[in-house]
Amino acid sequence: MRLAERLGILAVAILGASCESAPVRGVNIPAGWFKGNTHTHTLWSDGDGAPELVSDWYSGHGYQFLVLSDHNILAEGEKWKKIGKGKGEVKPESLEALIAKFGKDAVALRGKDGAQEMRLQTLEELRARFEKPGAFIFIKGEEITDEFKKLPIHHNSLNHTGLIKPPHGESVRETLQRTIEAVEAEAKKCGKPVLVHLNHPNFGWGVSADDLAHVLGERFFEVYNGHRGVRNYGDKDHLGTEQIWDYVLALRLGKLGGPPLFCLATDDAHNYHKIQEQEVANPGRGWIFVRARELTGDAVVQAMLTGDYYASSGVVLEDVRSDAQSLGVKVAAEAGVTYRIRFNGTRPGGEPGEVLQESAGAAASYRFKGDEYYVRATVVSSRKHPNGYDKADLESAWTQPVVVRRGKP
Ligand SMILES: [Zn+2]
Ligand SMILES: [Zn+2]
Description:
By secondary structure, the chain is α+β, with helices and mostly antiparallel strands. It has eight helices and 21 strands. Among the domains are: 32-78 and 121-311, Metal-dependent hydrolases (TIM Barrel), CATH 3.20.20.140; 80-119, no CATH class.
């Protein structure tokens, strides 16, 4: 083939590719389920996106609720950020992008001490601008960012009113416990359903499986966090988050007499100016679907507290249902995608999280034998995540564990 012909074919191929839109997701979210992300950063702490840019991304990408969870701060009061190239400053190109998107009048600027500053929009302003009843809401929250001897201990608190300060402790477990108590105190004060989830236990190897198992007030944790630095899959010396989950469930239900641990998938997004695989912490990597009676912060958090939700990195479920006999999962299947459904659980004397049943297809049900402490389901699709935590991630969904029986403490 002559070069010109080859170039001609190439040009057609490129043209064809550019005309094609992004792959259309073939399913709608079933009625009664709401999609949301509970872990997001903005310029209020170390995210690189203005709060309105972040809100615009999520409200425009099929999410119904969003928690702006900045480090030890609520998006309240007057806060100005310097424009510049330094750490923690708003990059000039980010400001340009913001003005290009929303117009000059939508960005508040001032000169101070010879520098230019930008005012950050508050949650109240964002609510007025982006919230639509039944379609999109914010749930107030923060990332309570603590540490013990350089070990990071981060929790997200959702749906409270006042700022919760990192309480510090004399050990990892005490820090975990004191954070839970601080959130409980705030919940009592504001009189609303409030939830706290442990973030990225493997980040900095901060929280071990044993720590998490023994602090019984920890009822929620991130099994999938989209930030590239959090080590979801562990390493040769550390369990991955899914193994941590089974270890905690086995210990609590088999021995310690504690509650089950529920999971979340989140973005922990920090980078908004380029949405691509190379970025450390983009939006769109992990989220939850909550079955709530209405789209309000109270209703969403109340449903989560009862475990009526699941985590996802791309798979949508039509239904997940359990009773005294079984746990069943039905995928809202997409054309051209295949699914495997796996049931994990732990039995007395068995390995934590052993595979109890696995099958191909978009629906499966597991009948309890009666000796399992718990059973949970994971759906793994054949489709690669377009921009996941790991380049090899396949789109998945994780249901909450169902307690079948408890061991003797
Ligand atoms: Zn964190
Ligand atoms: Zn974070």
